[in-house]
Amino acid sequence: MQTSNADWITTKELAEIKGISERAVRKAISNNKYVIRKCSKSYEILVTSLEENVREKITASKENLPQVTNNSYIVPEMQKKLALAKYDLIKKWDEFRKDKKNKTIAGKDFLEAYNHNCICEELFNVVGKVAIGTIYEWHKKLRTYNDDWHCLINNYTFGEKTRKTLMKPEEEAEFLKNLLHPNQLNIGKAIKLTKLALTQRGFKNLCCDLTYRRFANNYKNEHYNTWVEAREGNKALHDKVLPYITRDISKLEVGDVLIGDGHRLSFFVKHPYTGKPIRPMMVAYQDWKSGGFVGFEIMLEENTQCIASALRNAIINLGKVPKFVYQDNGKAFKAKYFIENGLSGLFTNLGIQPVYAKPYNAKAKPIERLFRELQDSCEVLLPSYTGTSIIKKPAQLKRNEKLHKSLYKVNVPTLEQVINFIGNWVQKYHYEQPCPHIAGETIGKVLESGKGEGVNIETLDDLMMVREIKKIYRNGILFLKNNYYDEALFGYKKEVIIKYSLFNLSSIKVYKLNGEFICEAKRIEPIHPLANYLGEVKDIEELKQKTRIKKKLEKQTEQEYINQIKRNQVHTPLLTMDLIEKQEEDEINNFTLAIKEEIQADDFNGCFNTRFEKYEYLMKQDKLTKKEQEWILEYKSTSEYEQIYGDDNKEVFNA
Fold first, then answer.
1. Where would I find the H helices in 116-205?
2. Please, are residues 422 and 297 in contact by the beta-carbon 8 Å criterion?
3. Cα 344 from Cα 350, distance rounded (Å)
4. Residue whose C-alpha is closest to residue 294's, from 266, 336, 264, 258
5. Which one has a higher pLDDT value, 567 or 599?
6. Is residue 56 predicted with pLDDT exceeding 50?
7. Residues 245-263: tens digit of each pLDDT
8. Which of 27, 35, 168, 291 could be bridged to 49 by S-S, CB 3.0 to 4.6 A?
9. For 185-199, 238-252, 309-323, 539-553, which range has the lowest pLDDT when averaged over its residues?
10. Who contacts 78 (Cβ-Cβ below 8 Å, separation ≥6)?
C-alpha cells in the first residue's frame, strides 16, 4: 500500500512535538519502536506507528498550518506553467531515487544529468538549471502543503504593487507636473526639482528617490499615451502609440498605382555649369505592387521639370499609363502644371488621378523605405559619398583627418555618370531582390509580368504638352520669365493658347482660342550690350538681324496704313475733300493694280538676314550670275568669313 508524504514525519519534527531531543527519537528508532524509511541523511517515521496522543498533536498542528488559497490578484499563465513544471520535476526526482540504495547520491546524479539537459528536456526549457538545495526546498513545500502544486508558484504580486505608492497626493501632483512637460525633463532631474519645490513649501519626510523613480516608471507603463502626448506631442502619439492601418497590396495590379517622392542624394556631383560639387535631387516613382523603381530623374533641385521627366520615364518603362499617382504633398508636386483642370494639367491630359499624402506622414509612403535601401546599398559605393548625417560622415570629410584625405581622395562624378550608375544598380541589384508583397518572386519578375504593350513616345510627349492661356505683349508672350516671339504675333492683341513641354522650352506653340494654329514662337535670347564694339561676329549679325526685323515690321505697319488710306479714297472719295462726283471704273481698276504691284515689290525679300545666310544660299544654287559670283569672291576675303568658316571650309569656286 502506497502512502503519501503527509503520512510521514521527520525525526526533527517528532522531537519538537514530543518535547524531547532528536537523539532520543533516533534511539527509539534503533529499538524498532517506529516504522521508518530512509530519507537523505535522516529518517522519516510513519505517523500511524506513533502513539495515539502524539498522532492527535500532529493532526492539530497540521490543521493550524497556513492553507494555500487563491490570491486576490491574477497569476499569469506563465507562472502557473512554471509551477507545474517544478511539480513534475520533483516527482521525477523522487521516482528516480525511490529504489536506490543511496538516495542522496541518486538525487545528485539525477540533478546533474538534468542540468546538462540530458534528461527532461521539456522541463529544462521551462524551469532551467536548479540547485540541489532548491530541489529539497520545493520537496519540503509539497510535503508541507499536502502535495498541492500551487505552493510552488512564486510569492509575487505580479504587478499588484504598481498600484500602491507611499507618495502623498501633493508629491504625486508636483512630480507629474515636472514629468508631463514638453521640455522632457529626465526622471532624475524631475525628482530633484520636485523635492526642492516641496521642501520650499514646508513638506517634510518626503519619499526616497527610488520611490519616485518607481512611480514614474509605473506611470509611464500604465499611461504611455498621456506620457507621449504631454512630452513629445501629437505626431509622436501617432507614430508610437496609436494603432496603424495595414494595407492589402494583393488587391492591386502592377502599374495601377505609382508612388512618387523626392530624395536628396548623399553624395556630390559636378555642377554642369560651374563645376562645383553639389548634392543633387532625385525624384523617383515606385510601383506599389512590385515595390520596385520604375522611373527616376536626377537634377540639381526638385522642380516641375524633374518630376515630369521622372513620370515620363516611369510610363515608358511600364509600357502603360498608371491609373493613380500617390505622391508627396510638396509644392513642386502640386504645381498647376500637373493638377490644374481645364486647358492645362498634365494628369488630366494623361488620364491619371493624383492622390496626395498627408503632410509630415512619411510612414504612409512606402517609397521612403526604398530610398533607405538606395542609401545603404548604392549611395555608399560612390567616392563622393557625404553620409546621411554628421555622425555618418566619412572620415576623409572630417577635420584634421590628413591620412584619410591622402588615401581616399574625393572623386566627384558628373550628373550623367551618376544617372548611368543608378540605372545599373536598379537593373542588376534592385530588381533581383525578393518582392515584399509576393513570396518567392523577385521585384524584376513581378514588374515584368505586369508591363503594358508599350506607349508611343511621340504621342506621350504631345500629351505631356500643357496648355495655358496667355496674353501677347510688345515682346511676344511672357512665359517662365522668358519672352517668346514670332513675326506672326505682331499686331495681335487677343488672348491665345500656348502649348509647351518642359523637355524642350526653346519654343512654344501658339493657337487662337478657337484652336487655329498661329505660329511656333521661339525664345528670345538677350544680345551683347556692345555688340558692335566688343561682340563677336555672331553677336553683330544677331543685332543687325533684330534691327532689320524691327524696321521691317515698322515699314510693314506704315504700308498697311497707307494702303488703308488708299482704299478709303477709292471707296469714299468725299473723305479726301475732292468733290469729284464719279470716277471711271477703269481708273479704279488701274489704281488697284498699282497698289498690288507696289505691295509685291515691298514684300520681295531680295536681301537675307545675315551675309553668311546669303552665302550659304548661293552655294547651294546650280547657276549663278556674274554679279553673284563677284559677291561670293568679295565675301570670302572678309574677316567675317574667316571667323565663321575658317581655313578648313575654303572651297575653290568654279566660274
1. 121-127, 132-144, 169-179, 187-200
2. no
3. 11
4. 258
5. 567
6. yes
7. 888 888 999 999 999 988 9
8. 35
9. 539-553
10. none
Distance (Å, whole) CA 608 – CA 614:
6
Least confident of 38-42, 147-151, 231-235, 441-445: 38-42
Among candidates 249, 194, 646, which has minimal Cα distance to 436? Answer: 249
Rounded to whole angstroms, the Cα distance separating 341 from 502 reads 18
Please tell me the predicted confidence (pLDDT) of residue 185: 94
Q: Which of the residue ranges 156-170, 191-205, 452-466, 608-622 has the most confident prediction, judged by mean pLDDT? A: 191-205
Would you say residue 2 has pLDDT above 80? no
Cell 532624475, located at residue: 188
Q: What is the largest CA-CA distance in the chain?
A: 174
Grid cell of 298 as nine digits: 536626377
Rounded distance between C-alpha atoms, residue 368 and residue 107, angstroms:
61
Reduce the DSSP state of residue 273 to 3 states and report it: coil
- Whether 517 and 508 have beta carbons less than 8 Å apart is answered as no
User: In the structure, how many helices (H) and strands (E) does the chain have?
Assistant: 26, 16
Through-space distance between the first and last CA atoms of the chain, rounded to whole angstroms: 142
Q: What type of residue is 173?
A: A
User: HSE (CB half, 13 Å, CA atoms) of 130?
Assistant: 30
Assess contact for 417 and 265: CB atoms under 8 A: no
484, 476 Cβ separation under 8 angstroms: yes
| Beta-strand pair 277-278/496-501 | unpaired
